[in-house]
Amino acid sequence: MVPPFLVAMAILGHVQAQQRSTLIDPPIREFDQILNHDSDQTGKFSQRYQLVTHYFKSGGPILFVQNAQQEMSPIWTTDLIDYAPQLNATVAILEHRYFGDKSGGSFPRNFNKRSTKNDTSDNSYAPLTLDNVLQDGVDFVNWIKQSIPGAEDSKVIYTGASSYGGFLAVQARMRYPDTFTGAIASSPALMSLGPMPENRLKFAAAGHLSKVYYNQSREAAQKIHENCHDALPDLNICWKPNGTDYRLIYQATVQNYFETSQFNYPFVDRFPTEYPLDDLINKTLPAKTDGEVIRIPLLASSWQQPNKCIDPSNRNITRASSPKVTSPEDYITCSYYAINHRSIPSNNLLPEAYTRTSVDLCKNPEWEASDYNSSNEYFTEKYALSHTNLDSMERLLIVHGEFDPIAAIGAPILTEADSYNHSRVIIVNGTARAEDTFSEAVVPRGVRPGLDQIRDAKLAHLKEWLGVGNQTTPESAAPAFGRLTWMLVAGAAMASYRVV
Ligand SMILES: *[C@@H]1O[C@H](CO)[C@@H](O)[C@H](O)[C@H]1NC(C)=O
Ligand SMILES: *[C@@H]1O[C@H](CO)[C@@H](O)[C@H](O)[C@H]1NC(C)=O
Ligand SMILES: *[C@@H]1O[C@H](CO)[C@@H](O)[C@H](O)[C@H]1NC(C)=O
Ligand SMILES: *[C@@H]1O[C@H](CO)[C@@H](O)[C@H](O)[C@H]1NC(C)=O
Ligand SMILES: *[C@@H]1O[C@H](CO)[C@@H](O)[C@H](O)[C@H]1NC(C)=O
Ligand SMILES: *[C@@H]1O[C@H](CO)[C@@H](O)[C@H](O)[C@H]1NC(C)=O
Ligand SMILES: *[C@@H]1O[C@H](CO)[C@@H](O)[C@H](O)[C@H]1NC(C)=O
Ligand SMILES: *[C@@H]1O[C@H](CO)[C@@H](O)[C@H](O)[C@H]1NC(C)=O
Ligand SMILES: *[C@@H]1O[C@H](CO)[C@@H](O)[C@H](O)[C@H]1NC(C)=O
Ligand SMILES: *[C@@H]1O[C@H](CO)[C@@H](O)[C@H](O)[C@H]1NC(C)=O
């Protein structure tokens, strides 16, 4: 699974002090959630949430964010806050079960974070199932409807970001169409599931990544292609490395090339500079030796100064490659959502990997579900993710950022329709992973043109879904979305990734 995509709190430091005082940031509260929704067990746990009712007017919608695969982001960082005033909406964010941070979390009471066994006791991960996660959202929004006067009949929109969070949004809309009127899935991975070598889409993400780099700068990409190999060149490592150190450094290098594009945000987040992809390209162009080229992503991800030696024990390097086996992300990967974006074909920007063998997506065999080794086709069927199914779903919007390689395994080919209610995929040029989910407090208007356009498009979709859009009244029909040229509607663009 792709690691957490945002250290949201780090962003607070970049928001202007003056602006910070106007942010709506209600206290984090806890919801008494059922641990096993499908049984009559009475076990409960406390699930954290934030709720903004500031803009709500009776009958307005509930815009719901299911946070995923990381601690809960502050609610003011989500773009839904920006649409709420115009929709009279309430906005809610729910932490994903089994995630949290030092200050708290959404764990069962007796849960043992070091548990590596799958048993049915509540100190193991067993209640961390897809069904339970989706049902958490259903119960939570139903509770909001009962608790806020005027919300009894509110329509609810489900949103989720990142490969997995976007996948949740698609699943929620599909399985609970009566609860969730519509869904926005930002950067979902829907199409390369399972570890098997036969998966025909396994090279798509790496192919997209390569394209992004070559498009940015053919010269820089060529240097990376020639110099990135596992016989690590002279990197100026802080001590004489052993085999383990080398392996960590090599894995971190490959991963960082991937993530520099994926998380190419216009603000400082995972990397010490804004626009880390441009920064990496700019620094790669004058680099002369193998070592000089490969040091660049390593220095960036470890936040080290240009002249420093590379410290293989730096947590920011080991994080990218450590064989840690006790995280909830790993459990989810092993048990129900094993996305493969790691296979790399020959003749790619990065060195060939997992071309003929299974990918070791699951780090703990004890956690492997019985169908773990199934084919991509099997999972497509299991989760009803065929293009035909997605095409016939109404009010599903899938948004991808062009710099995110996951765009290549998350953009089904759908019928181009003018109706905002038809399911739709939009790839936003010049934006990174799930960048569309950031509020204007994080990325103000004017910073990224593509981002502002997707914000307007989302609001137009939401209005239509909620019955207050202007396609509903024929005399004020909106311009046909599919004809706008500033975005690349998947289908045409992604077709080239299908044959691998
Ligand atoms: C929001 O509420 C105001 C006042 O109640 C109303 O005039 C307006 O039409 C509502 N907007 C939407 C989008 O429902
Ligand atoms: C390719 O480069 C052009 C010009 O810099 C840019 O507008 C476009 O978004 C880039 N596409 C990709 C896939 O990076
Ligand atoms: C390699 O070196 C690191 C750091 O000095 C050390 O922690 C590790 O145990 C060593 N591994 C092996 C296999 O010697
Ligand atoms: C990269 O270099 C170009 C051309 O000199 C410059 O316009 C751009 O601001 C630089 N980007 C970064 C992030 O340093
Ligand atoms: C690791 O990265 C974080 C940002 O994610 C940075 O603040 C920190 O200084 C880095 N730590 C080290 C040891 O380089
Ligand atoms: C864990 O155990 C439960 C209950 O026996 C089972 O339903 C589930 O599939 C198991 N999960 C994995 C990852 O094996
Ligand atoms: C999946 O395949 C691997 C390697 O072939 C095997 O070791 C593992 O036990 C299999 N897992 C399951 C759940 O069948
Ligand atoms: C229809 O809605 C779009 C998006 O909300 C807006 O830009 C446009 O001005 C509206 N058109 C009319 C005629 O109201
Ligand atoms: C889109 O769906 C909403 C909710 O069902 C509905 O109110 C609206 O009229 C639909 N729009 C069109 C153009 O059918
Ligand atoms: C968006 O990116 C695609 C692929 O790089 C390109 O073909 C298209 O022209 C771009 N659109 C704009 C408006 O830059």
TrEMBL record:
Pfam families linked to this entry: Peptidase_S28
SUPFAM superfamilies: alpha/beta-Hydrolases (SSF53474)
UniProtKB keywords: Carboxypeptidase, Glycoprotein, Hydrolase, Protease, Signal
GO molecular function terms noted in the UniProt entry: carboxypeptidase activity; dipeptidyl-peptidase activity; serine-type exopeptidase activity
Biological process annotations from GO: proteolysis
Signal peptide (UniProt feature, chain positions): 1-17
Domain of life: Eukaryota
Protein family according to the UniProt entry: Belongs to the peptidase S28 family.
Protein name: Serine carboxypeptidase S28-domain-containing protein
Naturally occurring in which organism (per UniProt): Pseudomassariella vexata
